[in-house]
Design a protein that fits this description.
Number of domains: 1
Order of helices and strands: HHH
Oligomer: single chain
Strand content: under 5%
Number of helices: 3
Largest sheet: none
Shape: globular
Distance between the termini: 31 Å
Length: 97
């Protein structure tokens, strides 16, 4: 999605990505709960991950004015590249494990 919206202004890109991930996460969580695929360990891990989420929200208040269109595009493309690379590596490791 970040590749699709990379040319957007910062506030529009951030808002769209936030809504996309919120809806996707809610759908995924609902499906996992429905099929009993979430363990206690997963719930504890998710609760701990709320700390970086809150820290990120606080930090974004101070960092948003540094993100012009060019920087936002670079960050969005870098995040997409890192995510795609991580997926390729994990799937390759699983394939040969």
């Amino acid at each position: 999605m970040s590749i699709l919206w990379q040319a957007s202004e910062g506030p529009k890109l951030r808002g769209t990505m936030a809504a996309f991930f919120l809806a996707g996460s809610a759908f995924s969580l609902g499906a996992l709960l429905l099929f009993g695929a979430i363990s206690h360990r997963t719930i504890v891990f998710a609760a701990w991950m709320l700390i970086p989420v809150v820290l990120g929200l606080v930090a974004s208040r101070f960092l948003n004015h540094y993100l012009n269109r060019k920087r936002t595009r670079a960050i969005a493309l870098a995040a997409s590249s890192i995510g795609a690379s991580a997926l390729i590596v994990t799937q390759t490791v699983e394939l040969f494990a």
